[in-house]
Amino acid sequence: MRNHSIADRDPCPYRIIEDIGGAFAFGAVGGGIWHFGKGAWQSPKGTRLVGAIGNCAARAPVMGGQFAVWGGLFACCDCSLTAIRQKEDPWNSIISGGVTGGILAARAGPKAMASAAVVGSVLLALIEGMGIWMNNYFSQMPNDPNMIQPEGPPENDITAPPTSGGVGMMPTGLTLRRAGTAKQQQQQSSSDGMMMMEGESERFDSGRHETTFSSGSGSGSSSGGAGGEKSGGWWPFGSS
Fold it and tell me: Rounded to the nearest 5°, which phi and psi values hold at 223?
């Protein structure tokens, strides 16, 4: 896969100038901030601002020049490897970082050159790896945030599978619907019971035997009192 950060760079003759300028600016700004704070820390009270500005003005251009030298050597090595290998890939940057570190430490001896070369290669490998990872990560993200689809079903979807553990778990919508159905069935059962009780009561009332009393004389008549009057009907005190 082609690395866009490499493909978008300028051609080699102009890349060297670009890398030198960018490295000088980076070193001057970073070194200026560092030496400004260092000068303010080391200056006595009352002259901290003057000491910070003086230290920044004296040391920031030096650090910028060191970064520019490193950037120029790195760009020259990178262009040389591109011309030799006839392709551009992260290996050019990794090898160029090692060669640049070894050249800058040449006056300290072979051991220092080897150490600086290893450090330069490792640093460039980390930088290139981070750049490739970020490029792949942002290239996979959709440009339109509205195109992102939700991963799960809606909350009230009765066709959704259970989202929690357990055998008897059901979706929320289906649980609510079944609870409502059970409540309706319970109400229907109660109304049916009331109707059955009312029907039984009516049937009992219609089937009752009305008790009647005969107005005729019983097993004949009974003697009532000394006058020998007959009692009529069921009224024990005689007829009116």
Answer: -80, 130
Q: How far apart are CA 154 and CA 170, in angstroms?
A: 14
Q: Single out the residue of 77, 132, 86, 133 nearest to residue 104, CA to CA.
A: 77
Backbone angles phi, psi at 221, to 5 degrees: -160, 165
Distances (CA, A) of 113 to 23, 45, 80, 101: 22, 43, 20, 7
Using DSSP, state whether 64 is helix, strand or coil: helix
pLDDT at residue 118 tops 50 = yes
Q: How many helices (H) and strands (E) does the chain have?
A: 6, 2
* pLDDT exceeds cutoff 80 at 98: yes
Instruction: Retrieve residue 74's tokens.
Output: 């790195």
Q: Tens of pLDDT along 43-89?
A: 898 889 999 999 999 999 999 999 999 999 999 999 999 899 888 88
pTM: predicted TM-score of the whole model, two decimal places? 0.53
Q: What is the DSSP string of 153-201?
A: --TT-TTSPP-SSSSS---HHHHHHHHHHHHHHHHHHHHHHHHHHHHHH
